[in-house]
Amino acid sequence: DIQMTQSPSFVSASVGDRVTITCRASQGISSWLAWYQQKPGKAPKLLIYAASSLQSGVPSRFSGSGSGTDFTLTISSLQPEDFATYCCQQANSFPYTFGQGTKLEIK
Amino acid sequence: QLQLQESGPGLVKPSETLSLTCTVSGGSISSSSYYWDWMRRPPGKGLEWIGSVYYTGSTYYNPSLKSRVIISVDTSKNQFSVKLSSVTAADTAVYYCARRVGSRTFDIWGQGTMVTVSS
Known about the structure:
The structure holds two protein chains of two kinds.
Chain A: E1 4-7, E2 10-13, E3 19-25, E4 33-38, E5 45-49, E6 53-54, E7 62-67, E8 70-75, E9 85-90, E10 97-98, E11 102-106
Parallel strand pairs in A: 2-11
Antiparallel strand pairs in A: 1-3, 3-8, 4-5, 4-9, 5-6, 7-8, 9-10, 9-11
Chain B: E1 3-7, E2 11-12, E3 18-25, E4 35-41, E5 48-53, E6 59-61, E7 69-74, E8 79-84, E9 93-100, E10 106-109, E11 113-117
Parallel strand pairs in B: 2-11
Antiparallel strand pairs in B: 1-3, 3-8, 4-5, 4-9, 5-6, 7-8, 9-10, 9-11
């Protein structure tokens, strides 16, 4: 299985800050990577697919980059509704696997 | 607007079979464009992909669960289901159903249902 390692596990930031979360795959996955946002008690929400493509309806302050083994999710200017947990998913091969998640907290 | 909703028992005894159903509303499960998948999140852990089914009935499973899991589809009811046998406490989790699209990602999810394995 392809292991997905996210960092950091926790990040504390303020409204208006720029935040970057990274995800590393244990082997190359080309651009087969997605990012999700999840809030407590809610279903995950797809933000980014194919490493850098913004899902319809997702604000443009979210962006993704990377290919191969190293990927980043950037939120350019944090809004109050962005405080949540973010995780990555590799879509290169079965079984699909997810990162452990990064919890974004209000400073 | 397409919606997914999980249903099934919230408590299952050890060694028994966990059975959940996902009802698709606002669209057809028989679309050739999508697969229908199950994931779970154990307490304090990350998401785990369980497997998927196509409307024709073809399936893909996580090898770690393959010996215990069956995913099926009922197009007449617009539903798909998961059965996990011989459950233990390690199968305690929030279970999600989701639609998988061409980018191999999950664009629509159910709200999730908590299943506890305990006697």
